[in-house]
């Protein structure tokens, strides 16, 4: 018999307890052992919970219990979770976590701290087995790129906004449906997706980047007029986490993205997640499924528990040794290469277009599509560019925003084809 302790018995924790009971026949057959939850750690012992396990509010009751083999951390947050996971490791426990924020900051330290199994399938894209796909299934490949819809809240909001929903109202619905993080700015600001991207990038490239090191933009400035441009030119707007290899450099970024509407990932709607991974030998692979929700996330957590019980001891981030040709380097965010879409609000005056076009020309930026829409107050110029370098776009925008007929900050959406 294997005994586990769960730290954080919320929606996912309750689902873990329930699925271990509901599916115990298949879980016992696949793992070879009976798996029993011995203790759950909660903050508030008085809160009603839908589980019948022993509860405590002291994490040491789990991390130092000699009978417990595996500590499952489902509490979220960074530093307190780190302290508890560290205590579990110091007491010789295997660890399973669903905590993407913890891993976004501390995954390399945790890897170096333990020689016991440490699994985290549920930290990225809920029920989709993307960690094991990248770490085991694609381990023979150099990974060319990862592009993922890895925040269900944003995908749900963008899907509804396309149908005409208002941003604030639909965010409220996403919160009510339980998709959003406790602080929804983590979702709409792109930070949750960034945490997940950093985890995937470490498996793909062994790269130790932190959230502050990478370009992160959220969906707060997306307007229905951007959706009209997208429709006109055959795109969908998706919040993507992108990791791309270019020689020795890796680009890591999270931002709203115009994706051609013939790509499979553009068709992913609602709270669903999807991740495209391109390997040099396998070509493109695509993973789709529920990225949030108690049972879907618990499904991934229990798969980790089963792996550990079976005796698998894969290196946490998938590397037994450093790369022979040296580490990949993170590309500076100013050097990112992309195609861009810009929305510029101007007053309707003679010479506006000429001035804007000359600024682009001066910064070596070539325009590919152009649309002008009469708004209530201003004229909206909507245009896309051929591939350009981020710093040239930034310089152009700085100059454009200084023109006195430009009435609002310029909005940018990057294009991925
Ligand atoms: N808030 C997250 C999302 C939950 O919307 O995808 C799953 O990590």
What does this structure look like?
The protein folds into 3 domains: 2-127 and 295-310, NAD(P)-binding Rossmann-like Domain (Rossmann fold, 3-Layer(aba) Sandwich), CATH 3.40.50.720; 133-289, Dihydrodipicolinate Reductase, domain 2 (2-Layer Sandwich); 335-415, 2-Layer Sandwich (Alpha-Beta Plaits). The model has no long low-confidence stretch (mean pLDDT 96). Helices cover 35% and strands 26% of the residues. Strands 7, 8, 9, 10, 11, 12, 13, 14, 15, 16, 17 and 18 form a 12-stranded mixed sheet that branches. It is of the alpha/beta class and 417 residues long. Helix 13 (352-362) packs antiparallel against helix 14.
Task: Give the secondary structure arrangement, pairings included.
Elements: E1 2-7, H1 11-22, H2 24-31, E2 35-41, E3 54-56, H3 60-63, E4 70-73, H4 79-90, E5 94-97, H5 100-113, E6 118-119, H6 130-137, E7 143-149, H7 152-162, H8 167-176, H9 185-188, H10 191-205, E8 215-216, H11 224-232, E9 235-246, E10 249-260, E11 272-279, E12 283-290, H12 294-310, E13 329-330, E14 337-346, H13 352-362, E15 367-374, E16 379-385, E17 388-389, H14 390-402, E18 411-415
Parallel strand pairs: 1-2, 1-4, 2-3, 4-5, 5-6, 8-10, 10-13, 10-18
Antiparallel strand pairs: 7-9, 7-11, 9-10, 11-12, 14-16, 14-17, 14-18, 15-16
